[in-house]
Amino acid sequence: MSKFEIGDRVTVRNLPALFHTRTQGYTRGHTGVVVGLRPKWVIPEDEAWGRYEGRREPFYMVRFNQRELWPDYGGAVIDTLETEFSERWLESAAAENTAGKTP
Amino acid sequence: MSSTLYAALLQSIRAHAPQERHEADLPLTISQRRAEAMLHVVHDLGGQPDGPLDKSLHKTALWEKRTHCTAECLAWRGVWVSEERRRRENDLGETLYFGTPYYARWLLAAAKMLIDKGHITPDELIAKMEEVRAREEDAA
Question: Is the ipTM of this complex over 0.85?
Fold first, then answer.
């Protein structure tokens, strides 16, 4: 069962990076929309350290507005960027707002 | 290695080393900000300040193709996966990561991984490197 559906607004968890990551620094704390679902796969936190049969999670393709990611973005307003996250790196943007936190 | 070759190697290493050393090169403590900068994950380049990107095309050399094949064969035999290779490239440290060509990082990561996992020993690898060097020298 996937936690998120296509169209859900999600915020990337803003956690420190350590040694290796597949969650780009520039996406952390930013909010985008789920545009694709990927089958479960071993999370990078296990696979990168030799645990090939490690924890499996759904992955999501998330679309961000470039202006959301880069405050000084000089391109068109409609420009977007898509990248992939394992489930643990995402939280519901709606839930975040009700908790009164700012991304 | 002859003393002439060793002297030349030293020269070359000195050219890469800092020209001056300060007490701060061996700090007992550093600031939180500095620690965060030092621990920045080297392959996470998006948004980092940088100069213009060189987009010129590079013709793949034979050693690069062989490196790619070696890495894939090691994966095929279950010795590692590409995600682990990327992590091991980061583990080489910034000097080697940014100072060596793309496929040299693959090669260094593969060599260290094979030693780490006990598939080869460093002396075996050294002996092989010497054997190849001698062979290439004879051929030249």
Answer: no
> What is the extent of the structural domain holding B114?
80-140
Whether residue B60 is contained in a domain is answered as no
The string of pLDDT tens digits covering residues B75-125 is 999 999 999 999 999 999 988 998 999 999 999 999 999 999 999 999 999
Helical spans, DSSP H, in chain B: 3-16, 32-38, 62-76, 82-91, 94-99, 102-116, 122-139
Give residue limits of the domains in chain A.
9-98
Distance CA B88, CA B68 (A): 15
B24 within some domain: no
Residue B112 lies in a domain: yes
User: Given B6, B97, B102, B103, which residue is catalytic?
Assistant: B102
pTM recorded for the entire structure: 0.84
In CATH, the architecture of A9-98 is: Roll (2.30)
Q: In a 3-state reduction of DSSP, which class is residue A9?
A: strand
Interchain CB distance below 8 Å, B87 and A19? yes
Mutate one of A14, A15, A19, A20 to test the B interface: name it (highest B CB count within 10 A).
Answer: A20
Query: Is the CB of residue A24 less than 8 Å away from at least one CB of chain B?
Result: yes
pLDDT digits (tens, 9 = 90+) for B4-36: 888 888 888 888 777 777 766 777 888 998 888
